[in-house]
Amino acid sequence: MNSKEDKDLSRLCIHTITTKPWQIEEAAKNFAEAGVEGITVWRDALEGRNIKLTGKLLREHDLTIVSLCRGGFFPAKDLNKRKLAIDDNRRAIDEAVELGTSMIVLVCGADPSQPLEESRKQIRDGIAAILPEAAVAGVKLAIEPLHPMYADTRSAINTLAQANDLAEGLNSPSVGVAIDVYHVWWDPSLEKEIKRCGANGNLLAFHICDWKVPTSDLLLDRTLMGEGCIPIKQIRSLVEAAGFTGFNEVEIFSTEYWKYDQAEFLKKIITAYKEHS
Amino acid sequence: MNSKEDKDLSRLCIHTITTKPWQIEEAAKNFAEAGVEGITVWRDALEGRNIKLTGKLLREHDLTIVSLCRGGFFPAKDLNKRKLAIDDNRRAIDEAVELGTSMIVLVCGADPSQPLEESRKQIRDGIAAILPEAAVAGVKLAIEPLHPMYADTRSAINTLAQANDLAEGLNSPSVGVAIDVYHVWWDPSLEKEIKRCGANGNLLAFHICDWKVPTSDLLLDRTLMGEGCIPIKQIRSLVEAAGFTGFNEVEIFSTEYWKYDQAEFLKKIITAYKEHS
User: What is the percent of chain A with per-residue pLDDT over 70, rounded to a whole number?
Assistant: First the structure.
């Protein structure tokens, strides 16, 4: 059987950062050969490359380019830094268009030298500032709530309720939400907020991985589905019940797995995807 | 000026774990000499000691024994383990009585091999099981919501809203809530939930420390007030506006500070307390 015919993988997407040791050309070839149908591209993977040609290459491998990761990081106490962040987000929109993807994931940012409320305001203002360009470009901005352990420097949007509030407040067809099980699994309001997100047409993306027990690093110790304690299948069923029909995107930052032979790791990802998500 | 007359310190309490390298007798003497008026005792600090005599010693230093840390860890997939946990919590109540304190802080626990909802049910049942003994002993049980990054093994109660729900549901004068800035500072509902906690008479304890930027360890990398990004003064003012008049308890787990000369560290704690809380 040609692995491309394996329907189990028809909604599997892998983030380039997941197999970070691979160059994007190598990742694309290997993903495609394994039957993976989606890829989310991290901006660092595009460095030094012609973005249009890279997009073309990915499509030649029959890969759907699910999203560009990542825009955001809007808050800064310093006005000039906030302007630079908005410029950078406009560049991300251009890059998304060149690459040929219709979604950018936003890691919203936070500045620990100012109150969270201030960072939250600047996030809203930053997204509002780039909305016109996003709309013209046909690119959707997916606000990803980040785990509260990242509230210091990575995101002041730490719950799905906040992301829903923000998306609803901006009230634009170009803004929605990306749900990553790693960030939201602990949330007692999860079921309610997933329903709300879907009901309002804001559920744009779904990221999966697992929470390792114990976790030794706040950022780079995620693990494969089934190797941790997140009820991934249950969350996926909530997301699908809320109307989501997009890709299940495997996004794993793991110092440990990056040391592995990446071809072996890809096999493990596919097995874990089939069995535990 | 006798440091005991320094009114700034009249509501300062330090947890024995904060100056972990000191034996409790040494901590008591040094806290008292520095003008600190409260101590919270971790159970490990009592190991191999006569608890009554230790309590007497602390009182001879004019220290108020604010609480015993910690009970809890109720959830377990295995029924026998849950029974053992309840037995251990009953022992904690006995120890609190022997020590002469009227409060036990509960770190509620979580078992990553079962759903969070199940752990939450077992926490409620566990507290309900020991409530009669707590009431007879005159010991209050303070439910401490823990940061969501501890939802895997330390606590399935991860927001102040959940702790408030749980305390209100149990509806007993022997149950309340302990608020630690480290666990709740990120929460967009914080102000509302602190008000609710105070209004319902459930605000029993207030713990302070700071969130280091960056944080290198999920458990043992807390820092001194003023050295991180938590708006401690603001949260303290919310807690006091909600009617809290108890001690401000310094609870810092820090591999780094435990390596310091503890007498120097104590001076730093006092300065940080005066300037940043």
Answer: 97
Q: Output the domain CATH number for residue B91.
A: 3.20.20.150
**What are the Cα distances from residue B155, in Å, to A46, A127, B110, B187, B210?**
41, 35, 5, 16, 20
Please, which pLDDT band fits residue B8 given cuts at 50, 70 and 90?
confident
Q: Which residues pair with B103 in a beta bridge?
A: B140
* Contact predicate B223/B210, CB 8 Å: yes
- Residue at A250 is within a domain: yes
From the list A72, A162, A174, the residue with the least C-alpha distance to A125 is A72
Give the span between the Cα atoms of B252 and B233, in whole angstroms: 17
**What's A210's DSSP letter?**
B
d(C-alpha B134, C-alpha B54), whole Å: 21
The CA distance from A122 to B109, in Å, is 36
CB-based contact, B187 to chain A, within 8 Å: yes
Band of residue B2 on the pLDDT scale cut at 50, 70, 90 = very low
ipTM over 0.90: yes
Domain coverage including residue B203: 3-276
Task: Tell me which chain B residues have a C-beta less than 8 angstroms from the C-beta of A218.
Answer: 149, 214-216, 218
Question: β-strand A140-143 against A103-107: which pairing, if any?
Answer: parallel
What is the model's pTM?
0.96
Helices vs. strands in chain A: H and E counts, helices first: 10, 8
Cβ–Cβ of A148/B151 closer than 8 Å?
A: no
The DSSP string of A5-27 is G-GGGTTEEEEGGGGTTS-HHHH
Taking the Cβ of residue B149 and every Cβ of chain A, the question of whether any pair is shorter than 8 Å is answered with yes
CA distances from B112 to A125, A227, B125, B269, B275 (A): 39, 11, 18, 35, 40
Q: Across the interface, do A153 and B115 touch by the CB < 8 Å criterion?
A: no
Could you tell me if residue A112 is inside a domain?
yes
Shortest distance, CA B158 to any CA of chain A (angstroms): 8
- pLDDT score at A6: 54
Query: For chain B, how many structural domains are there in total?
Result: 1
Is the pLDDT at B31 greater than 50? The verdict is yes
CA B110, CA B73: separation in Å to the nearest integer? 7
- Phi, psi at residue B80, to the nearest 5°? -65, -40
Identify all chain B residues contacting A120, using CB atoms and an 8 Å cutoff.
188
B115-172: pLDDT as tens digits? 999 999 999 999 999 999 999 999 999 999 999 999 999 999 999 999 999 999 999 9
A148/B187 CB distance under 8 A: yes
Whether A172 is covered by a domain: the verdict is yes
In a domain, A4, yes or no: no
